Amino acid sequence: MSATAGDSAYVDSWQLALHDKADSTRRLYGECLDNFARELPEGRSLLEVKRRDCQGYLAGLKAEGELRPRSDPAGSRSGRSTGGCSAA
After folding, report:
1. Which of 32, 39, 34, 41 minimizes the C-alpha distance to 87?
2. Do residues 3 and 44 touch, judged by C-beta distance below 8 A?
3. pTM given for the model
4. Which end of the chain is less crowded, N or C, counting CB atoms within 10 A of the terminal residue's CB?
């Protein structure tokens, strides 16, 4: 993750909040957060992220064909989304 070193306690706390999720869900959420953090400008903290940062990141994924609609059957066998964090 290329966000600031101070983000690690924040990320650890966030991961603890996912305790009731399946292991695969926690892994996917972590991968998504890592991918997002790598896109942040050098030295930018996750705590400084604004809605527009997330919107810009998601728009970039969509433009690259990496973000699928929630109901896209190609996302998984069940027809549910993969969260837009995996390759299309």
Report:
1. 32
2. yes
3. 0.67
4. C
Length of the chain: 88
Structure tokens given for 39: 């896109």
Scan for tokens 């991968």, then name that residue: 31
Q: Please state the separation of Cα 14 from the chain's center in Å.
A: 12
Q: At 22, which amino acid appears? A: A
H or E, element range at 60: helix 51-63
Gyration radius of the chain's alpha carbons: 14
Q: How far is CA 13 from the centre of its chain?
A: 16
pLDDT per 10-residue tile (average), the chain, 88 residues:
72 91 93 91 88 92 82 52 48
At position 53, the amino acid (one-letter code) is: D
Distance (Å, whole) CA 26 – CA 31: 9
